[in-house]
Amino acid sequence: MRVAVVGASGYTGLQLVQIILRHPHFELVAVTSEQRAGTSMGDAFPSLRGATDLVFEANDPDALVGRVDFAFTALPHAASAPTVAALRKAGIPTADLSADFRLRDSDVYTRWYGAHPAPELFGSAVYGLPEVHRAALRDAALTAVPGCYPTSVLLPLLPFLRAGLVEPSGILVDSKSGVSGAGRSANSKFLFAERDGNCEAYKVGYAHRHVPEMEQEAAAAAGQAVQITFVPYLLPTSRGIATTVFARPKGGAALGAAAARAVLAEAYADERFVRVLPEGETPSLAAVRGSNFCDLAVFADERSGTLILLASLDNLVKGASGQAVQCANLMCGFDEAAGLGEVAAVP
């Protein structure tokens, strides 16, 4: 199947290229980048020399018509929607990695992003969390790949909300991400000298645009409104997310560690990319770096009546590009794990 990566020079776009080049059913035939149009991928990124002869093209979705059977769009928020609209008008199935189609409430979208650039498509995408929306993804023509933070929050939390085991309010989330999650932007905050040996919070509480996405999917699982207090941090590392979710058992009922772990184990027993760790083990970034795995663990602090859910994933793979390919595999009728067999490099 012939595929294109639109916006292939950013971190998520490059990760997509790397995955697609080893995919057994995808043939990468086009890559776009406004900044690097006319430059070969190997010259722009020496790690790709000998792996592909493709040259970056300008972002023109009409130029892809008749050349590709599937498209991945890895463009900035708001910039992605017009390209997606053109691709869909041409009948090209698309996996979009921006936030342009993740939300289902237009008022919420407007509050965070402004007027939607393609209102005719708003609400038409399947939210691309395969472990939750697998059946819908098999029939989807457009999928909205989840954000990296929401993936790390929703995978451990949703089984408990779905089962009615935790309170839908008072959920606290502490999440730490590598700086690649901010994209390839020229910002002094992301300089080595600023990040090395440093860790700081940003956009605390309801200031981060991923919170409404989390609450939307959490509410769908719980069958009622869910409130999440979110504190993200930047870690002095290039990639990876480590998330802790604090929740209280519903009605103050006791929920021990063994029973809580059984909830996760049952929910993800047949999942290829979600690993529920043995009792007492905690997730690590090293175990998921460069892979499409998300590692989960759960602890019960019975003294304070708090359930502690832990998750680790690679923000560029399971948190973005790997998950996009996982969705595309389902949309195209391929093995869901095709092209995603990489495990973390150790050491």
Supply the number of structural domains.
2
- How far apart, in Å, are the first and last alpha carbons? 35 Å
CATH class of the largest domain: Alpha Beta
How big a fraction of the residues is strand?
15-25%
Mean pLDDT: 94
Low-confidence sequence ranges:
none
The count of DSSP E runs of length 2 or more, i.e. the number of strands, is 13
Could you say what the CATH architecture of the largest domain is? 2-Layer Sandwich
Q: Could you name the CATH topology of the largest domain?
A: Dihydrodipicolinate Reductase, domain 2
Q: SSE string, helix = H, strand = E?
A: EHEHEHEHEHEHEHEHEEHEEEH
- What about the largest sheet? 7 strands, mixed
CATH homology superfamily of the largest domain: Dihydrodipicolinate Reductase, domain 2
Can you walk through the features of this model?
The structure is a single chain. This protein is of the alpha/beta class and 347 residues long. It has two domains: 2-124, Rossmann fold, CATH 3.40.50.720; 148-316, Dihydrodipicolinate Reductase, domain 2, CATH 3.30.360.10. It contains ten helices and 13 strands. The protein has helices at residues 11-21, 41-44, 80-89, 106-113, 130-138, 148-162, 192-195, 211-222, 257-267, 317-332; strands at 2-6, 27-32, 70-73, 94-96, 126-127, 142-144, 171-177, 200-201, 228-234, 241-247, 274-276, 294-301, 306-313. The strands form two sheets. The chain has a seven-stranded mixed β-sheet with strand order 8-9-7-10-13-12-11. It has a six-stranded parallel β-sheet with strand order 2-1-3-4-6-5, sandwiched between helices. The longest helix is centred in the C-terminal third of the chain and has 16 residues, at 317-332. It is globular, with a radius of gyration of 20 Å. The chain starts with a strand and ends in a 15-residue tail after the last helix. The model has no long low-confidence stretch (mean pLDDT 94).
